[in-house]
Specification:
This protein is α/β, with parallel strands linked by helices. The protein contains nine helices and ten strands. The strands form two sheets. The protein has a six-stranded mixed β-sheet, sandwiched between helices. Helix 6 links the parallel strand 7 and strand 8. The two termini are 25 Å apart.
Length: 243
């Protein structure tokens, strides 16, 4: 299976602290990969690098295109980084339309059709013309995923997509993610502290601690590390220095 995200020897220093130290990993095309680690491990910094928000030393390629060529590298990337921020006094549709205007390759007809499509994909039909200030957290997360899908991406990077959601809404977001992957072939990189949820979603895992990759592998190979077949146990075992 081809590699759609390639990270090699990436390092990053912020405020005189080395946040990432010679990080290397790959993500397979059409996979769902979990990106996990304790607070301060460097996950958010790595995601900000992958989405072109900050620079780094080393090599990052998205669909074979170096990240320093931002326009081309990010053309097929969608992202929801941290908590999405929308205008509360605009409707969900109006927020998406304002964001879609940033893509000069779409004419008005294509833009409107794409917005209708992503609203349907995330299950916001019937609420898209309500003001965002009346949205629940789960609806805002759906809207965040919708904006990440506007450019019809091959790669979707999600940071804590189910954080703070109740079990029912969490399952609904999980079903959206799985549908995008299985029916549309969207490659996912998902960062989350909810290990039980990632265990249900992911094919592969990348584990990072103190700015270094601790382990990367298939779901089966990672789960076997803890001896119980559960991601939480494997994660704790690896954090304690196990193999």
């Amino acid at each position: 299976m081809s590699r759609i995200i390639e990270v090699e020897n990436v390092s990053k220093t912020l405020s005189r602290r080395q946040v990432l130290n010679n990080v290397s990993f790959t993500v397979k095309k059409n996979s769902i990969t979990g990106f996990i680690g304790p607070n301060g491990a460097g996950k958010t910094t790595m995601i900000r690098i992958l989405t072109g928000l900050i620079s780094c030393s080393g090599t990052v390629k998205l669909s074979g295109i170096p990240i320093h060529d931002k326009t081309r590298a990010l053309k097929n990337v969608g992202a929801m980084v941290e908590m999405p921020v929308f205008s509360s006094y605009m409707t969900g549709y109006q927020n998406l339309y304002a964001l879609a205007l940033l893509d000069s390759t779409m004419n008005q007809r294509t833009r409107r059709a794409r917005i209708r499509e992503v609203i349907a994909l995330v299950g916001l039909q019937g609420r898209e013309h309500n003001k965002v200030k009346g949205y629940s957290l789960g609806m805002k997360q759906r809207l965040g995923i919708a904006q990440a899908l506007l450019n019809n991406p091959e790669i979707l990077i999600l940071d804590e997509p189910t954080n703070g959601l109740d079990p029912v809404v969490t399952k609904e977001i999980r079903d959206i993610i799985l549908k995008l992957n299985r029916e549309r072939g969207v490659t996912m990189l998902i960062s989350s502290h909810l290990l039980g949820e990632l265990e249900k979603l992911c094919d592969d895992f990348i584990i990072i601690s103190r700015g270094r990759i601790v382990k990367q592998g298939s779901k089966d190979s990672i789960l076997s590390a803890g001896g119980t077949g559960h991601l939480e146990d494997a994660f704790l075992h690896l954090m304690a220095g196990g193999e």
